[in-house]
Specification:
Helices cover about 45% and strands about 15% of the residues. It has a six-stranded antiparallel beta sheet with strand order 4-3-6-1-2-5, with no helix packed on it. It has a six-stranded parallel beta sheet with strand order 10-9-8-7-11-12, sandwiched between helices. The protein has three domains: about 1-205, Four Helix Bundle (Hemerythrin (Met), subunit A) (Up-down Bundle); about 210-300, Translation factors (Elongation Factor Tu (Ef-tu), domain 3, Beta Barrel); about 305-435, Rossmann fold (3-Layer(aba) Sandwich), CATH 3.40.50.80. The longest helix is centred in the first third of the chain and has 30 residues, at about 70-100. Helix 13 links the parallel strand 11 (about 405-410) and strand 12. By secondary structure, the protein is of the alpha/beta class. The protein is built from 13 helices and twelve strands.
């Protein structure tokens, strides 16, 4: 119930902040002759601006905000509200031109328009560029690192120009009490930026890490062991993740999210198992021991520590084994006796990571490990193909609805697992995923 209260609190607070700017447009004084459509278009613009300002808060990695929902839900909501906010912002000039007076079209000309019009036009342009480069990043072949930096800069520029546009219009922030409210909103927006881009990096400077070892794993993956330098590290729950910056300033706009694969019950060292998938991950194997690193974490809600259950089912595809190893290693360190079933899918058995360690963990835990191989050799006696509903039914306890399910792997794998479990009648609240689908 406490979780429900927190969800309701943040939901109502979000709604209140979105609606609050309407005070600028809804309360007088009302000059004669402005009409409904003009004021309505302004109101929509304020709502869109407020929603875009809140986009920063959603991805600011503020644990009290993200914890009740989980990272997947926060990112999904961030994307959805970005579209809605853009829709309201675009309606603002559209209604002014179509429903009020076509002369407002002149404000969209960056050459002849006043700075009032230019700031609004350039703000909309940056928003559209941000959306296009995010939705079609793959087709445009934009590197993740470049996109991450551009995303932050475009969003900051768009919101800054929109705030300047409102200030230059002046009418809606001219009254003393409106001015005070406007200053408070702008200060809150600036405060979030300062917290994310200045305060937290300074905190990370004071708590650096060092790459201790980089070990090769099957399936073109690497396990990076990080050692805290001058501090004791931080506490985290099995299955959580952190944002990693290696050999670069903590003020850098580019960081990478990876799950912890180590047990938090051991010393302050942290391990991350990383598969070669992109520009940065392909360079992980060449990182030299002793390289300085910075770690922002822990983050996420993908952890058995957050859910009660008599048994656990871990469904991993490829590199999705990383957070599962954190869970299993933690269970072993704690002497966990609850039943745990790991179904681990790979294209080839040779790609399976931690195969030997999983066998040894079976001696310490009530653990069943099922390897599922797509390209199995003729002598293979295990499961072939892919994990599906029939395979789940064969290997999981008969009380399917009572297990807690943790799913990690490629997006297609996770979607297939959710569909399979749903077809077996597993309640949605017992299915937990970690997509890392930031774009």
């Amino acid at each position: 119930m406490r979780l429900a209260y927190r969800v309701a609190f943040w939901g109502l607070l979000y709604l209140a902040v979105v609606i609050l700017p309407l005070v600028f447009a809804a309360l007088g004084p009302f000059p004669a002759g402005r009409g409904f459509w003009r004021e309505f278009s302004v109101a929509l613009g304020f709502v869109g601006l407020s929603m875009w300002g809140l986009e920063y808060v959603l991805v600011a990695r503020i644990r009290p905000v993200a914890a009740p929902f989980g990272e997947d839900a926060i990112i999904w909501f961030h994307e959805l509200m970005g579209y809605f906010g853009t829709f309201f912002i675009l309606l603002h000039p559209f209604l002014l031109i179509v429903a009020v007076n076509s002369r407002f079209l002149n404000l969209l000309n960056p050459i002849t328009a006043s700075w009032t019009g230019r700031t609004g036009t350039f703000s909309i342009l940056l928003i559209l560029i941000l959306i296009v480069t995010s939705v079609w990043r793959g087709q445009l072949r934009i590197k993740y690192e470049w996109w991450q930096a551009a995303h932050a800069l475009l969003a900051t520029g768009a919101i800054g120009l929109a705030l300047a546009h409102v200030e230059l219009v002046g009418r809606y922030v001219g009254e003393p009490w409106k001015r005070a409210l406007w200053i408070a909103m702008v200060a809150a927006f600036v405060g979030v930026i300062v917290w994310v881009r200045v305060v937290r990096p300074i905190m990370r400077i004071r708590r650096p890490w060092e790459v201790e070892t980089v070990a090769s794993e099957p399936g073109r993956a690497w396990t990076v062991t990080l050692r805290p330098v001058g501090h004791g590290g931080f506490a985290y729950a099995p299955g959580e993740f952190g944002w990693l910056a290696v050999n670069r300033s903590p003020f850098s706009l580019t960081q990478h999210p990876f799950s912890f694969s180590s047990s938090p019950e051991r010393d302050g060292r942290i391990q991350m198992t990383i598969k070669e998938l992109g520009d940065f991950t392909r360079s992980v194997g060449s990182i030299a021991p002793g390289t300085r690193a910075y770690l922002d974490g822990p983050h996420g809600t993908f952890s058995p520590d957050r859910h009660e259950g008599t048994a656990f089912a871990l469904l991993a595809g490829g590199i999705g084994i990383a957070p599962m190893m954190s869970m299993l290693r933690t269970f072993a360190d704690r002497g966990e006796r609850r039943v745990c079933v790991l179904l681990y899918g790979n294209r080839r058995y040779e790609d399976a990571m931690f195969a030997d360690e999983l066998e040894s963990l079976k001696q310490k835990l009530a653990l069943q490990v099922v390897h599922v191989v797509e390209e199995a050799p003729q002598v293979w006696e295990g499961e072939r193909g892919r994990i599906d509903a029939a395979l789940l039914r064969r290997h999981l306890p008969t009380t399917l609805q009572r297990l807690q399910y943790f799913i990690c792997g490629p997006v297609a794998f996770q979607n297939a697992m959710v569909d399979a479990l749903s077809s077996l009648g597993v309640p949605g609240e017992r299915i937990h995923t970690e997509h890392f689908n930031w774009i």
